Amino acid sequence: MIHILSLPLFVTSSICLLMSFFFALLYYRLTFHHKEPVKYYFLFALSALISAIFFGAFGVLVNSGENLFALSISNRLTIIGAMFTLVTSLHFYLAFYSYTAPYFLKWCYVICGIFSVLTAVPSPYFLDNAFYATSKYYTGLKYGFLFEVWGIWILVLGSYCIYILVRVFARQRSRLEKSSTVLLLLMANTLWLITGISDTLTGIEVVDLPPLTWLGSFIVTSTIAWILVLHIDGLYKDRRKLNDKLMHDHLTQALSRSFLEVKLNEAIFRIKNSDINRLVVCIFDVDNFKNINDNYGHSSGDVLLKNITEIVKRHLSPSDCVARLGGDEFVILFSDYHSALKASDIVEQIRQTIASTVFKAKAHTFSTTCSFGIVNILSEGDLAEDPAHDILSTADEALYTAKSLGKNTIKNIGYHD
Ligand SMILES: Nc1nc2c(ncn2[C@@H]2O[C@H](COP(=O)(O)OP(=O)(O)OP(=O)(O)O)[C@@H](O)[C@H]2O)c(=O)[nH]1
Which residues cross the membrane (predicted)? Predict the structure, then answer.
């Protein structure tokens, strides 16, 4: 019959094992597929694996009763696990919070390695096999004087973790950054240290429970996991922001010139690869925009550009889009077959709406008009060698004609008119 107290330990161990697998996979994908090695994912995978062994060993310990062999093995594993959980956590904090790892960090691993060998081999100076009864459980080990040195070593390591976290906490506070996760880590590490000391001093006699450090280790491991999840969220948020910046013109929120090229090339690809061929591209430009800037100020000109974009968007269906080429020049793309059929009517409605709108900016009210050049692509045969560039320059020529015809007008041409 499995001891009820060991169940949370086995559950925690399984969760740690899963987390370790997940982060090892993430590290592998980032390093080998995206050439973007993120060291702390590897550290966390390692730390979670050690924690899984650590918690699993605790579970075995609780169930081992008077089986000296099981007690000895599980207790030795928990000691090794506890030690490496601390040193990998320390390494993680240094890497994640951008502190240069001190030279002695690699020696910490070496010292932990030496203590692990000492832990693995029964000896009267460090850990001997013996029935050493606590109030209820048996540790299966008898501690020698060198074990006290190990206790001091763990104390130093744990204190250094806390020192680094205090520095991170102070740095985040001074920059007015959110510091709740660091605070949680700080508490978990302090708890770990207190429970670790009490376990060491009392031979796990404080309560009739498995060693108390498992609780601290669990909080440390889960908080680190939580920080990494937040970190992944942050990376995606940054990427979305960057995409948004690349896709949209910051003033008008129309599509950017570069994203227009992507959309136009997609539309051209569809024309080449589908039986239903129709694409309408319209370039338009505000008439005498320079006068609006000169008469009402540059910021009024900005407001006008934003309002015109909104008017255009209101007339378009979701499959169409408007992009700003620069200055007061815009492009509308009708790439859906049905909206392309109605493109001329829609552009006429846009022209009329703009011409009849009274725009307001600051204390000024004014009217304006736009000129439009439309080009219709009806078949694959209309596409030149460099179709995107060719379509835009043909639409630009149509716009130029519309301007020369007296402005506030539309020049609609077939591709090879
Ligand atoms: N307010 C504002 N003005 C801009 C911006 N970018 C360019 N401009 C101005 O837009 C004006 C563009 O004028 P043009 O298109 O060359 O000429 P126009 O006065 O519109 O005359 P036509 O095009 O012939 O009707 C210039 O005065 C630029 O300084 C911007 O982001 N905001």
Answer: 6-28, 40-61, 73-95, 107-127, 147-170, 182-202, 214-236
